[in-house]
Amino acid sequence: MRVLVATDAWHPQINGVVRTLATVAEAARPLGVDIGFLTPQSFRTVALPSYPDVRLALAWPSKLARLIERARPDSIHIATEGPIGIMTRRYCRRRNVPFTTSFHTRFPEYVSARLPIPEAWIWALLLRFHRPSRAVMAATPALADELLQREFGNVVLWPRGVDTALFRPRAVDLGLPRPIFLSVGRVAVEKNLEAFLSLDLPGTKVVVGDGPARSALQRSYPQAVFLGTMAGQQLAEAYAAADVFVFPSRTDTFGLVLLEALASGVPVAAFPAPGPRDVIGTAPVGALNDDLRAACLAALHLDPDACRSFAERQTWETSARAFVENISRVRHDAHRSNHDAPAPEQAYSLPDMRR
What we know:
- The protein is α/β, with parallel strands linked by helices.
- It contains 14 helices and 14 strands.
- It folds into two domains: 2-161 and 316-353, Glycogen Phosphorylase B (Rossmann fold, 3-Layer(aba) Sandwich); 180-312, Glycogen Phosphorylase B (Rossmann fold), CATH 3.40.50.2000.
- The longest helix has 21 residues, at 316-336.
């Protein structure tokens, strides 16, 4: 089976969406599934304001259609709601091609953190975008429940995994006062890093990642150590060097970094937000508290071996199998009920992204 994934998030971006898509594609090969990608690399791009490493594709309909038809996919999955996602959605709707989507990012909260736009408006646009999807894939039960409550249809689970061979306990000394409290991810306002950096904690606060808020946060919190962007072995060693992984975001839908930290034998401290609450549940591998300082101090006393054992049960093979099963179920249903063709496409109200 050939699956084409349309995504606006792709290399050189470093984030959970890109890592998930690339890793699932690899893990799906032994299942007899070839996953290809339609990405900004095939188009002219412009930088997203304040995010120079995030490129928005100028996705012309005719070129996009040629790329899709050249790929000859058996199924199409739309991973993001950006220009490529929007144009692929339009392609599928106009040709009555069934497609699936996934919900990775809480754009309503992200946009409202920057601009005076009501969250309800963004949720309405997202609902309209995903409504024709034959399966809207969500990473956790909590997110799936929320989407159902917001009247999204056809919501299914697509769990995430972690590379336990790369992310594992090991002896690493950063030469910094311990305990080391680590945060990994994009350094941007929606990640709520200030809630972590402003805490009165012993030892050292370390931030791995880059983004538009880095310069301001470094000036405001000179006692914190900012290591910049890391990947591969370097990132794995940074995790292993930590005593507690701090996840201050209240809006992330999952947080792949949580599993990477746990696989490294590092307990988690976080707010009791849906993402970390759903990943950790009642397992003794994290401390969730509205008082983030209390969570950080409590996490110091959790068992690293329990964290590692917990992560070892979250495999990319399981994630890939769930993705493939969701796709296969939609293909089967589409073949069985061809008479249930989607209604004709209506104008989608983001004209600046459809030119």
